[in-house]
Amino acid sequence: MPSCIIRSDGSHSTHTVLLRIDTPIEVDYYRAGGILPFVLRQLLAD
After folding, report:
1. Cα 31 to the chain's mean position, in Å?
2. Residue 46: pLDDT band with limits 50, 70, 90
3. CA–CA separation, 33 vs 16, rounded Å?
4. Residues 6-43: pLDDT tens digits?
5. Which of 19, 26, 32, 42 could connect to 38 by a Cys-Cys bridge, CB 3.0–4.6 Å?
6. Please, which residues have CB within 8 angstroms of residue 32's CB and are 6 or more apart in sequence?
7. How many CA atoms lie within 13 A of 36 on its CB side?
8. Which of 21, 20, 3 has the alpha carbon at shortest distance from 12?
9. Which helix (H) or strand (E) holds 26?
10. Contacts with 29 (C-beta within 8 Å, 6 or more apart), sequence order
11. What pTM did the predictor assign?
């Protein structure tokens, strides 16, 4: 999926990016929708 880069001068460009997941915890973060949602779910579960 293309990602749009918006620069501080207002110009932009679109590029295709590749996501790399190296560790099991990164899989958990990805499935949770990011690190913050992951941490919040962990806090609420306690």
Report:
1. 10
2. confident
3. 20
4. 999 999 999 998 989 999 999 999 999 999 999 999 99
5. 32
6. 38, 41
7. 0
8. 3
9. helix 24-32
10. 35, 38
11. 0.59
